[in-house]
Amino acid sequence: GARKRQRYVEKDGKCNVQHGNVRETYRYLTDIFTTLVDLKWRFSLLVFILAYAVTWLFFGLIWWFIAYCRGDLDHLEDHAWTPCVNNLNGFVSAFLFSIETETTIGYGHRVITDKCPEGIVLLLLQAILGSMVNAFMVGCMFVKISQPNKRAETLVFSSHAVVSLRDDRLCLMFRVGDLRDSHIVEASIRAKLIKSKQTQEGEFIPLDQTDLSVGFETGDDRLFLVS
Q: Which UniProt keywords apply (predicted)?
């Protein structure tokens, strides 16, 4: 039998095209925001978790290193000693202090003292970097959640298109319906004919695109989907 031709665009709007042998993959990193938004949900959530966990661990290590270099860990029982951070007695407490600082949940019995200028500088840096991480990651999640990709799941098209007479003219006809109760008002429709073409000069164009007239001039391309 005849080989079934694959669709160029699926009925849910996804392009049935796979990019292979992409060499300059570093270009995806130049627009890291869009790259993260385009990732699948499981990878986006992984990056979201790692972004916070890595910064907490990184600054927790620095807080512990400051306490170690100042000798605070050697004077835990010396009440006359003024440490950089009160009640910081190891890496775990330094990690918890890092979380408290970056998430601004409020300090408990671990609090920075005014006798530690390097700690004050680090506190400012972590507060600024934490705000940047929050803005970046929350922005990525918001854009990803607000994308209307899943809305297309409730827009259904007829299984077949037909060419038939209407008002003594041959017309290409297909049906589209909206399954949701919240209807799309002023929906705009476009139709393209994609086929292979060979020019008069002998050039072969595998995916030649032609816009079909669906009422751009008269405004008939704007639909009110009620069924």
A: Ion channel, Ion transport, Membrane, Potassium, Potassium transport, Transmembrane, Transmembrane helix, Transport, Voltage-gated channel
Distance CA 134, CA 156 (A): 38
CA distances from 135 to 30, 103, 139 (A): 18, 13, 6
Q: Decide: 198 and 205 in contact? Cβ < 8 Å.
A: yes
139 and 49 together in one domain: yes
CA distance linking residue 50 with residue 41, whole number of Å: 14
Could you give the percent of the chain with pLDDT greater than 70?
A: 94
Inter-residue contact 176 to 225 (CB < 8 Å):
yes
Last residue in a domain, options 120, 146, 172 = 146
Q: In this predicted model, what pLDDT tens digit does every residue of 176-191 receive, in sequence order?
A: 888 887 777 777 888 8
Other Cβ atoms less than 10 A from the Cβ of 140: the count is: 21
* One-letter amino acid of 214: V
Output the CA angle 18-20-25, nearest 5 degrees. Answer: 110
Coil, helix or strand at residue 192: strand
DSSP 19-72: --S---TTHHHHTHHHHHHHS-HHHHHHHHHHHHHHHHHHHHHHHHHHHHHHTG
* Residue pLDDT, tens place only, 81-124: 889 999 899 999 999 999 999 988 877 788 899 889 999 999 99
Total domains in the fold of the chain: 2
